[in-house]
Write a structure and sequence with these properties.
Shape: globular
Strand order of the largest sheet: 5-4-3-6-7-9-8
Structural class: alpha/beta
Strand content: 15-25%
Number of helices: 7
Helix content: 10-25%
Distance between the termini: 69 Å
CATH architecture: 3-Layer(aba) Sandwich
Number of strands: 9
Order of helices and strands: EEHEHEHEEHEHHEHE
Largest sheet: 7 strands, mixed
CATH topology: Rossmann fold
CATH class: Alpha Beta
Amino acid sequence: PESPLPPPYSFATYTVPADRTLSPLQGGNQIITRLVGSHPLWGHHLWNTARVLTDYLLEHSSLVKGKKILELGAGAALPSLVAALKGANQVTITDYPDQELLDNMQWNVDTNVPLDIRPQTHVKGFLWGADPTPLMNGPEDRYDLLILSDLVFNHSQHKALISSVNSLLSLDLPSNGEMTPCVLIFITHHRPHLADADMAFLPALAESGDGWGYEQVVTEWTGVMFDEDPGDEKLRGTVKGFRAWRRRKEA
């Protein structure tokens, strides 16, 4: 028998909050993202967590302007698109090396990022914990900001994800009030009974490498993604955002 047709693409719109701006390079106040029709890695949704993280980038544009940025597990890549539009020097968008996902992310880049800044925006496949060399031009060519949006529910991959964070973020330390280099880790507890396992990512990161600090920067109610899911609606519908940074070595 003939194979069934793949599910059709869907589209999701992100509207810039009224008190913020995108870029004179991008007309209007909306970004249209295309989503794969269905995918075992959940790339067929624009998650509330990504919307809240994008709002945060718009509010704190100094995190992205003139910086090198990498997103892990990007899906529709909304935060990365906004980072490119807000003046990032380079944006690298990564997800599992599945061609359908990568092609869809490239479509979102081609549709939303103007031609004159598109060469600074790259789409690449990457497995967490793998050799990061293909994402860098050299061992010192690391990133100022890493974006982790709704990734830590994948508990079996915490160790690999932490390995990649340690390998990819700049070795410089924030100083003089600067917020970068840093990692943005935004979380929604879609399975409330596993919330503790989600949160275990942060102390595990803090204890890795030479040590990390972190702070919560966002708590925002968005409503639940799926009404039929079990568990506490307050947890399932709240996005929590954290900023993490390397700590100075003790003398």
